[in-house]
Amino acid sequence: MNKLSMQQKAANAWADGVPDWVAELAIMAECEGLNACASRLGYSPAVISQTISNKYRGDLSKLEDKVRGALMGVTVDCPVLGKIGRHICLDWQAKPRAVTNSTRSKLYRACRNRCPHSRLKGGGHAQ
């Protein structure tokens, strides 16, 4: 029995058509392996595999944003750093406040003060 490629798994699992970002995720997982793909995006290999197989029941929107930023070149205009990848924006939002680093303090405040790209509860407008 032949092992299905990640792209074939995605095609079989997504009956209404594979979303473009899932197709990119499957290509990366196939080329670099699940562990490398997961590490690059900050998720577990299980989440990557379940997403490709359309079995992940968690919130896919953040993973989609990470894939679009890291693999598809989507950028945002950060009020502190300027133009950055969407995945980098999400990584900065997750960091705790650090008063010893002025840039990090500015980012912490910006992400929590109505930045349109913030996914933090009460912090912005992005979905």
Description:
Strand 1 (75-78) and strand 2 (82-85) form a beta hairpin. Helix 1 (6-13) packs antiparallel against helix 2 (20-32) and helix 5 packs across helix 6 (86-94). Strands 1-2 form a two-stranded antiparallel sheet. The protein is built from seven helices and two strands. It has helices at residues 6-13, 20-32, 34-41, 45-52, 60-70, 86-94, 102-111; strands spanning 75-78, 82-85.
Write the H/E string, N to C.
Answer: HHHHHEEHH
Tally of separate domains:
2
Task: Characterize the quaternary organization of these chains.
Answer: single chain
Secondary structure tally: strands: 2
Strand content: 5-15%
Rg, nearest Å: 16 Å
Topology (SSEs and partners):
Layout: H1 6-13, H2 20-32, H3 34-41, H4 45-52, H5 60-70, E1 75-78, E2 82-85, H6 86-94, H7 102-111
Antiparallel strand pairs: 1-2
Helix pairs in contact: 1-2, 2-3, 2-4, 3-4, 5-6
Short description:
This protein has 127 residues and is mainly alpha-helical. It contains 7 helices and 2 strands; from the N terminus they run H-H-H-H-H-E-E-H-H.
